[in-house]
Amino acid sequence: MTLDEILRTALQKGATDIHLKAGVMPVIRRNGTLRPLSSNIPPITAEQIEVLAFEVMDTKQREHFMKHREIDLGFGVSGLGRFRISIFRQRGTIRMVIRTIPYKVPNFEDLNLPTVLQTISKAERGLILITGVAGSGKSSTLAAIIDDINKRDNKHILTIEDPIEFLIRDKKSLITQREIGIDSDNFSTALRAGLRQDPDVILIGEMRDRETVEAALLAAETGHLVLSTLHTIDAAKTIDRIIGMYPKNEESVIRTRLAQTFRYIVSQRLIPRAGNGRVAAVEILKSTPRTREYIDRGESEGRSLVQAMEDSSLEGMQNFDAVIERLIHQNVITKEDGLAFSTNPHNLALRLSGFGGGSVSDEVHNPVRPTPPVVSLGVSTSSLISKY
Known about the structure:
By secondary structure, the chain is α/β, with parallel strands linked by helices. Helices cover 38% and strands 23% of the residues. The protein is built from 16 helices and 13 strands. It has helices spanning 3-12, 46-55, 59-68, 108-111, 138-152, 187-194, 210-221, 235-244, 251-261, 289-297, 305-311, 320-329, 335-341, 345-353, 359-365, 381-387, and strands spanning 17-20, 27-30, 33-36, 70-77, 81-90, 93-101, 126-132, 156-161, 174-179, 201-204, 225-230, 262-272, 278-286. The protein has a 7-stranded mixed β-sheet with strand order 9-8-10-11-7-12-13, sandwiched between helices. Strands 3-2-1-6-5-4 form a 6-stranded antiparallel β-sheet. The chain is globular. The model is unreliable at 356-388 (pLDDT under 50).
């Protein structure tokens, strides 16, 4: 099969990722599970993968790959969509992992995002982080926020990505998209240069190191709206991860800067839906006097960010276990899957058994106190692909 044929077949099956490995038939990931693309396709040889890999690379990218033995790049196929491709070597042969990206930029309605997240795009300045493990929908959420700004405001939006994923067209805003390796050497260099390019909004594909974090904080402190992603499992761990990038003697300074600049930290987990597909649980940490104090001075007994999120549902905050408990009560997910994806399975199991006190269960059944909306992206990347 040609690469186009592999991609077309994978999209028809709703794949989010495609794995090509020498000696193995193509494998796709669908709804979080790996499975063969087709039983009728024979294993791919090392020579075939090498041909496919070099077909998608230009001369400069081939030189980079030959020198460094790995490369990430964006690739588009007319009539199919865009793809993020990671090409690397393993045991002397070339491997390819391909992430599918829809042509259509998703919006809040497509993703069924929590209502409170729609206020994010109206922020004028500060730092907004979308976190989660790989494949949890971070890029789609960021794209929806940018799309909302693009449709509403006359702003200059600068994106710095590795590689560029969603292609964003100018609407009311002016869009500049820069790709690492093609338009700039690295995130920190591109971001420092970006501050001189008159941006109102800056999207950083990923904050990978201290230099990028430092540049992002500086941009947020100087009045820009900065959006980025981190590979962390929840909001509290995101704070720990950023602080951990700095020496111990700088901890108090970075805590104060982070407390003053962050606006939202949104963490996402995709959980198997009862029956078929996946549903996203979303944790939301919002900047309030209480959360800023906990970040600035550090957490302690009875002063945790998780507790702050649990106590602040009316302010638009929520933590993973509260969302997961509601999804279990509504039979959207099974108890087993909910516990497997929860932050504190023991406490959640106690609440589900009726031994954990009031908390979220009371909120669900209390007709007086309004319950925050069930948090679900509604559609995963795979369903977007199958739709578009």
